[in-house]
Amino acid sequence: MNFWESFWDIFWWFFIFYALFAFLYALYMVIADLFRDHELSGWWKAVWIIFLAFVPFLTLLVYMVARGKGMAQRSMERARRDQAEADSYIRRVAAASPTEEIAKAKALMDSGTISPDEFERIKTRVTS
């Protein structure tokens, strides 16, 4: 019987692949959280890493039960900080300075595209 002829063999193969992927992802998340946590001392980090090396599945379960709440909080804090940095960068890059906007409005007024009243409204909006 060929390996790919049986539906349950294929199902089992995909299940094993998924379980291995989930295990490796959890391992990565725990190791990343260990090095992200500034409250945990270096010795405790070393102990967790040693246990992860020798008893990985059990250590992953214990870590997620014992430190899962803090792990989620550190992850949310990191996501908030990254979002704030991205928003700050976008605002800095996308928004023109008031001087640039007034100069553009002046050029539009000089070319006759906008009226002096519109130029004054733009100027008051930019400076306020």
Question: Would you write up a description of this structure?
Answer:
This protein has 128 residues and is an all-alpha fold. The chain has five helices and no strands. The protein has helices at residues 7-36, 42-54, 56-94, 98-111, 116-127. The longest helix has 39 residues, at 56-94. The mean pLDDT is 89.
First and last CA, distance: 79 Å
Oligomer: single chain
Structural class from helices and strands? Answer: mainly alpha
Query: Using DSSP, what is the number of strands?
Result: 0
Using brief descriptors, characterize the structure shown.
single chain; 128 residues; mainly alpha; 0% strand; elongated
Short recap of the structure:
By secondary structure, this protein is mainly alpha-helical.
Topology of this structure?
Blueprint: H1 7-36, H2 42-54, H3 56-94, H4 98-111, H5 116-127
Helix pairs in contact: 1-2, 1-3, 2-3, 4-5
